[in-house]
Amino acid sequence: MAYGEHGAKEMLIVGTKVKNYVKSKGLMSSSDVLDSLNHAVYKALDKAVERAKANGRKTVQGRDV
């Protein structure tokens, strides 16, 4: 997995984009929303990778997500 400094997972999402999206919906985002969303993205990608491998492919496709 991709790890940054101090063993933390590398951020795969763009924080300002997420915060702007939430704000456009009339809400504010808490300080932990980015970490939680990043964790969900890692989980979805790990699942997609495993599905691609199980199907004998080396390419992750949209249908794997």
Question: Would you kindly provide a written description of the structure presented here, covering whatever features stand out?
Answer:
This protein is mainly alpha-helical. The protein has one domain. It has 2 helices and no strands. The protein is elongated and about 45 Å long.
Q: Give the total of domains.
A: 1
Using DSSP, what is the number of strands? 0
Residue stretches low in confidence (pLDDT < 50, at least 5 long) are none
User: What order do the SSEs take from the amino end to the carboxyl end, as H and E?
Assistant: HH
Instruction: Note the overall shape.
Output: elongated
From the N-terminal CA to the C-terminal CA, the straight-line distance is 17 Å
What is the helix fraction of residues, given as a range?
Answer: 40-55%
What keyword list fits this structure?
65 residues; mainly alpha; 49% helix; 0% strand; elongated
Question: What is this structure's SSE topology?
Answer:
Blueprint: H1 15-24, H2 33-54
Short synopsis of the structure:
With 65 residues, this protein is an all-alpha fold. Helix content is 49%, strand content 0%.
